Amino acid sequence: MAAEQAAAEGGSAAMETDPTGSEPPVSPVLSPEPGSGQIKFRVVFKSVVHEVVFGLDQTIGELKAHLEGKTGCPASVQKLSFKGPVKDDSQTLKERKFTPKCKVLLIGPTAEDLLQQASMAGPVVESDPLPGAVVREPTVAWCEQAIHRKVLDKGIPPDVEMGYMPLDGPEPVPTVPLVLFDYSGKIRLSFKMAEQMLVIGTKERTRQVPLSSIYDCKSEPIAEHPAYHIMAMQLGPTEKSIKFFYWVPAQYVKSIINLFGK
User: Fold this and answer.
1) Which of 227, 245, 247 shows the shortest CA–CA distance to 167?
2) pLDDT for 62-93, tens place per residue?
3) N or C: which end of the chain has fewer CB within 10 A?
């Protein structure tokens, strides 16, 4: 009788451990073990690590659909990075050379983030220009805009690395801090790939930004100095979080943008 009671209590305790059946972000004990033809690997999204068990013969598109349920990031806006951008949804995990215990970076907004952006944008109202008004072209190169000229007109700072136009493809993301400039002055940009972190350092403070939380990254060459770019990173879900960096050497631009699947 006592043995039966102990067994009943043991079963009750096991059920109380996880009453919802949900899987925590990282739990090697409770995560399912891979079966035949499957591997277990990690997906990092917004600083949370998700353990995933998936078949090697399943496609990237199927993986994205699975991750949508885990993270809330719609499959249609997901960007995956594993040894570079994962762009072909029809490829299988085996073809993309996924391996057990590998780390995959997931970048993108959640459905809640998208709703927030839509509500903040508001309706677009178009109207005819007033008589005599000057109608300007909607697209003006960044290097021609007055707000950026305040930085560019000071000339190439002596601290920045020499830029050049790469002939054999872009240089890899720099492993040492990159000296750049923003509106306030000199900054150091460090890409900590092992920690999946971008570190922005100034004289006053150091800011750490998870790569998975960066929504977008774009750049434009500086017309009078084409070996350097202006780069814009959107560090949060709204356009108010866009930060501009100046004098980015052209040889690194493509590799940095590729971090975010662009």
Assistant:
1) 227
2) 999 999 998 888 888 888 888 888 889 999 99
3) N
What is the Cα–Cα distance from 188 to 160, expressed in whole angstroms? 10
Residue closest to 246 by CA, chosen among 163, 171, 165:
163
For residue 139, how many other CB atoms are within 10 A of its CB? 5
Buried b (16+ CB within 10 A) or exposed e, 104-127: bbbbbbbeebeeeeeeeeeeeeee
**Closest Cα to residue 211, out of 160, 261, 161?**
261
The SS3 call for residue 251 is: helix
pTM value is: 0.52
CB 66 within 8 A of CB 49: no
- Phi, psi of 141, rounded to the nearest 5 degrees: -55, 140
